[in-house]
Design brief:
- With about 270 residues, this protein is mainly beta.
- It is about 0% helix and about 35% strand.
- Strands 1, 2, 5, 6 and 7 form a 5-stranded antiparallel β-sheet that branches. Strands 8, 9, 10, 11 and 12 form a 5-stranded antiparallel β-sheet that branches. The protein has a 4-stranded antiparallel β-sheet with strand order 13-14-15-16, with no helix packed on it.
- The two termini are about 15 Å apart.
Length: about 270
């Protein structure tokens, strides 16, 4: 998705940031960074406009062409980690044979980059594929659907859980989201054997992160509202015990199917 350019022009009256037209008191934003995605924080504009900028297609930086990859690769998560970029993605292949859909086993692939442009697949030696562990498969098993990792900046997080992740899986009781932890972002383990969230569809990429402003973990997951795909959110103090998920609200907006969410903190 495109972003809204964050610029301050002389034509924008920031000194009188008001809640809405006709409001008498300015909104106190303190020292927070604020994205001007609408006119909530703008009193008036002269010679300026809010413009949605669109991404520009560039060169291909990685082709999912290894034997354990294929046509259904996706749900790519990329983050910068102390001068190195990490990429995690769904390695999967779908094919149609004799009128029937055939699927390969699902794996989670891993790649690294120094600049975000040239990527390498390290041979991790963790999981076997067709008799060999010479591959970049970083996880295979429960919770491998929509595996979504992040580096946890929570100062209270133990070193063995410096990296965390969400992953969707199935149990005898139904669908659920499982919590993962890792010391190095490569070797992953379940934080507990049962899911930490249940009761939603979860049939997409579900993610979580540490909210440094609120001092808690926040998760976003997929469900259906009145038959339409939509997004819920929940919070947790420890990444294990989560509040009851609540629908995101869009006052005045028309119904819109939201499949894959990519909610992340603004840096």
């Amino acid at each position: 998705m495109g972003g809204v350019e964050r610029v301050i022009l002389t034509g924008v009256s920031i000194a009188t940031v008001l809640a809405a037209a006709g409001a008498e008191e300015p909104i106190d934003i303190g020292s927070r960074l604020e994205l001007m995605v609408d006119e909530l924080l703008i009193d008036r504009m002269t010679g300026a406009e809010l413009r949605l900028h669109h991404p520009q297609p560039k060169e291909t930086v990685i082709a999912f062409d290894e034997p354990w990859e294929g046509s259904a690769c996706g749900y790519v998560t990329v983050f910068e980690d102390e001068g190195r970029y990490r990429m995690y993605y769904k390695a999967w292949h779908l094919d149609v044979s004799e009128g029937r859909l055939k699927t390969s086993p699902l794996h989670i692939g891993y790649a690294e980059s120094d600049d975000g442009i040239v990527w390498r697949r390290p041979e991790l030696g963790l999981f076997e594929f067709e008799g060999s562990t010479a591959n970049n498969i970083v996880w295979h098993g429960q919770g491998d659907h929509g595996f979504s990792p992040f580096r946890d900046p929570n100062p209270e997080a133990p070193s063995e859980a410096r990296y965390k992740a969400f992953g969707h899986g199935k149990t005898e009781a139904g669908r659920g989201v499982f919590a993962f932890a890792s010391l190095d972002g490569i070797h992953w383990s379940l934080m507990q054997q049962k899911p930490v969230l249940t009761g939603c569809a979860f049939d997409s990429q579900n993610l979580a992160f540490w909210d440094s402003f609120r001092g808690e973990y926040r998760a976003y997951m997929r469900d259906f509202r009145d038959g339409i795909r939509d997004i819920k959110t929940a919070t947790s103090p420890d990444f294990i015990h989560w509040s009851e998920p609540q629908w995101l609200q869009y006052p005045g907006a028309p119904d819109e199917a939201l499949y894959t969410n990519q909610v992340r903190p603004y840096y």
